Amino acid sequence: MGRAWDAGDDPVAEALRAVDRRAFLPRARRQHAREDRPLDIGLGQTCSQPSTVAAMLRLLRVPPGARVLDVGAGSGWTTALLGRLVGPDGEVLGLEVRPDLAAWGAANVARAGMPWARLAEAAPSVLGSPRPGGWDRVLVSAAAGSLPPALVEQVAPGGRMVIPVRHVMVLVTKDDDGEVAVSGHGTYSFVPLVEDDG
Q1: Catalytic option among 48, 51, 129, 183
Q2: Residue 144: which of 158, 131, 162, 130 has the closest Cα?
């Protein structure tokens, strides 16, 4: 089976080869880790299709040293991939709203050996994780019903966010003056984003 999603010598392909998807799957699913399809990880959640993850990461254009927020981190695979892309001078925070899944994902990320990347349970009724100055990059791995203003606000000037809105992959860019531009980049299927637990 061809695996174009991790072919080539760009940083995303290198990260996909370096961070083994098997380590972020339940034992019963690991034999399917190299297949280009979403895999069930329990609690109604999936580990996203590798070619989709590759497309999202390439749109995000994560530079070394970036501060990155990973919303809907699930098993932690995308958090670890982002950790690989930013390197030890960067910071990655993965957030997962389901406590059991967050605990498992956090352990998976910790085993990946990148202390600058971590996964935590999302705060109740808070979408994302606001921080002074914002995040250089925001990756959202669950589909929003509409573009969430709370997450747009968390993108730093000069930053980018990739988020599925309904079934469209949306790229949000913010220039140095804070002006926002939005563009669509193909259709995909994702589990829904839990936007408010309150």
Answers
A1: 48
A2: 162
48 is catalytic: yes
Contacts of 27 (CB under 8 A, 6+ apart): none
Whether 61 maps to a domain, the answer reads yes
For residue 198, being part of any structural domain is answered with no
The token pair that represents 189 in the structure block: 């299927």
Residue-wise pLDDT tens digits, 43-54: 667 767 888 999
Q: Show the domain range for 21.
A: 4-187
Whether residue 9 is contained in a domain is answered as yes
In a domain? residue 46:
yes
Q: What is the CA radius of gyration of the chain?
A: 15
Residues 6+ apart with CB under 8 A from 133: 156
Which amino acid makes up residue 16?
Answer: L
pTM: 0.91
